[in-house]
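Researcher: Here's a chain I'd like modeled. Treat it as a single chain, no partners, no ligands.
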Amino acid sequence: MKKPLVSLERVTLPPPSPSDKRADWERFKDALGTEDLTISTDLLRKLPGLLRKQGFQLNTMISHFPPREVISLQPENAYVIALDIGSTNITGSLLDLKTGNRSERITLRNPQTEDGTDILTRIHLASSGMGDSLSEKLIRGINLLISDLSAMAGIDNLNIHAMAVSANTVMSHFLLNLPVENLPVEPYVPVAHRFPSLHASDLGLTINPHGLIYIFPNAGSYVGGDIISGIIASGVHRGERPSVLIDVGTNAEIVIGTKDWLLAGAGAAGPALEDGIFRAGRQAGKGSIRRIEYIPSERIFRYETIDGDNPTGICGSGVVDLVYELYHNGLIDRRGRFTESAGTFDLQGEPALEIVRDAGIHVTEREIENFLRSKAGMFTALSVLVHSVGLGFQDIERFYISGALGTGIPLKKAIALGMLPDLPVERFLLLGNTALSGAEMLLQDASLIEEVEEVLGKITYMEMNTSAEFMQDFPSARYIPHADPEKLRD
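Model: Modeled as a single isolated chain. Structure tokens:
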């Protein structure tokens, strides 16, 4: 039977007597049948009064991440939070351990983006003395998300007793206010791979002060806890045959492996699908265009937004739709350059094509080039990883896709553009946010911590920046679908 990361347990103790003078804390542990249990001093102070007030029958919240600890006495509810801290956004969900119900996922902008949308800028600022400020901003953003989740559920923050946190290595370091200056420079050394058991009060998080904070460990500067969590969620590490996880966020992180081995690598891909180098790009949300179709007879684009709201930008699936429609209808060539039939206008010295006039949404030739560079980086990293272990795409049993591409991407169009191998769509499975899913799974099953440790022991990172094959193949992958289409099937 699965035991959650923290569990609500009913403890019944025999009252003291002249023949049984055991101390309250020893009596409490004996009733639970364990010596392997700790308690904070302030909860220990409350224990005698609560035991006698409740007739020596007490609800208690116990954490199962070593060291096992009492984190609440007589709690009203059993709520926990799963958290995915991204470079651009923070996403969370609230789980009720009593019912197993999960709230809607809420996404907020990472407040650190005020100081720099790219992570290298923030690392430089932290190394220049702004580390405390960046850490405080991140904590403030997380606390705002906690408040929103609590308000949505109609509960008090103090009823939240644990958080499982998935984050890339840099964000984990910012969360703990650890030095980050060594992460982006060779030999790319983090302060720590594994993090100690923490209480919410240690970080200034506004859940129960004794609440357990579990942070997924990293395997290096470029294989963070978000990837470890994604491996757990996808099950790549459990397969008899090789499978692949492609997690597209700020970068495209790729893992290939089986139950016996795991290899990871990364390539730039995500920003073009969000609001980085593609200016009309938006996170999936209200007003984001999720589907686009070009109508040649009318020379207009028809579109569909999430929730039917007025368009404010284009999310990842819409970006893929757009580039496919431009190419399929002859508005751009294989290099992403506008053709004469595109009907472009001049925008600050470069050709641009209007997509939604009333909303001022357009796409420029440079943005399409950025997209093609990103898709080339993702595909080339995937190709190099697969070939490095002596395999071809046909040998991969399943491709799991998460992150910006993992929700609603039109697979056939992504394949047609050369973003993904030219294989039947049945070989691909969209998983959404696996970093958050892995955190949700671990909150409900503490035994997964052992699997996390197994993954850490198996995983190897392949550096793409120094890969001669990557540098050689990347230029050809910038074409639609590829300068050598056979490479998409190899």
